[in-house]
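Thread: magnesium ion complex, take 2
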Amino acid sequence: MGLKAPIGSPSVRYLDRPASESFTMSYRFEFRPYQRRFRQPVRTHHGDWQVRQGLILKLTDDEGRSGFGEVAPLPWFGSETFEQALDFCQQLPQQLSDQAVPSLLPTLPACQFGLESVFSNLERNLRPIDLPNAQCGVLLPRGQQSLEQWSPYWKQGHRIFKCKIGVGQVADEMEWLDQLLGQLPFGAKLRLDANGGLNELAARQWLDWCDRNDQRIEFLEQPLPPRDFDTVMRLSYRYHTPIALDESIASWEQLKAHFHRGWDGIYIIKASIMGSPQRLRHFYHKYPIDLVISSVFETAVGHQALIQLAIDLAMTYPDIPHRALGLGTQQWFPDDGFSQTDWPLLWQRLA
Ligand SMILES: [Mg+2]
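Output below.
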């Protein structure tokens, strides 16, 4: 049992079924686009993000059983655009066979993830899993709003809080985070994400600040732009606070390249835009890197695929500690029904 295509091959096998088995299943493939407006724009170094667009995929087998998957592109992280994903889905036949699944180009990683997930969701008969909040980091808004909003999350069991930095002046942001740390109970930890928005001097200032707040900062994420990898590598040796790469490793090729260049810090894995989850599982099995499975603001359908992936990875190495998932993003959307795990209902809503 296992992967049929060699790792790195653009063609994808979706099923853990021996190739010698001769019967072929036929599946009805459908997809529906969705749009979700954020409660407030997500403000990062990349700019303001107002509307999340993606596609929900549905696969139904001969016996009427259905599975769901999601395509959630993030073009400014190097994935295909929503339009390219839509175009691809429109060109897929309505009947898919597990013996003749489409060959996906590496330029469509979000589609690759979505299609592989929808097959796996159906074949493994996966049911929604409710992840304890303690295992899930939560993204706070910036500034004063974070001071007003962390407390309910703490009461709900969240212990990891993520904050975006690198948007304003270093001194202002440090003042804000000093205030936040002053309020947060011991046991809470911060993940700081600069989205590559710092220069080396600012990165050093932040790492000094993080080291001074030792034990309360889980890591600093992507302090410098991807082109400054050598500097990040040097900083990672010089400071105590762990550094995580995110933008640097947004694609499968980048992930592998940084691994082989010797990155031994943390890897933020935006699995929804990294192509085949099966390929990622095989990589992890061979190289158990220190990783955080992270959201790109998917609906509950995509979230469940990420939770399942995280569980699969954790079960590969049950004895090593696993970091909280970066999935606490649903509160950034209004109550639009996309965060609930009643997928047939969600599907109907999109009709
Ligand atoms: Mg990030």
